[in-house]
Structure formats: structure tokens, C-alpha cells
Amino acid sequence: MSNRATQILPHHRFVYSLGAPLACVQGTISRVFAAPEHHNGANHQHFIVKIDSVVKFEGGQQNLVGTEVFVAVRFGDNEGLAQEIPGLKAGQPVEVQGEYISEASAYPTEDNRNPVLPVLHFTHHPVGFVKYAGEYYS
Length: 138
Hints:
Layout: E1 22-32, E2 37-39, E3 42-58, E4 68-75, E5 93-101, E6 119-121, E7 129-132, E8 135-137
């Protein structure tokens, strides 16, 4: 987190925190990946969002508007969502909150490579959420 590297933000106290800035963004889904990816012992639903506006960005300073971010939503266990978010479609609006991992710190996965996009992860309770089609998922 550059000049805020030693500052502890409230969401950093949780076990899945990577010590990254907390971002809440609104945008448009530009791509939905067909199958969940099994990663670090859990299923993750993946999609890409083109950011239209930033609601908050605690611990970060970049201008995220107009950029794309790769979103990973954990599901299927008691750590993330109970199940996948139904009906995700490209072209639809979405609001997502989670930890923001810059492209310099993100590592390639099957769905996020060539190029590697910045990532929003920890998009579930107790830190993040997804608002889609009038529903709140956390």
C-alpha cells in the first residue's frame, strides 16, 4: 500500500485479508467466466467489471474509473457465499466491494492472464459484498 503500508485498516484483521486496500466500485460486467475455478481449497466465481465509479477506496490512491478489474467471489463453503450468484451476464450493472490487488501484485490464474488484471477478492462477509440485479450477496 505504498505510503500507508504500516497503517492497519479495519478489514486487515480478518484471516483472508491480504493487507490490501478496500475498494467498493460500481460498474458494468464485461465478461463472465463459465465454470468456477477451484483455488486454495474453495470454489470461486469469476467475472470482469469495467469500473464506472468508485464508492470508496480505503488505503488506495489510484484512479480506478475506466479500468477493468477481475472479480473473484468465493462460494460453496462457510467462508464465502453459500452458492454462486445466479444469472450473471455481461452488460449488466454491478456493485462490488473487496480487497483490491493491483496488477503488479496479482498472480495469473486460469481465468486472469494475458494480461493479468487487478483483482477484487474477499468479496464476501465480513469484508465484501456483491450487489447484482437488486440482490445483495455477502
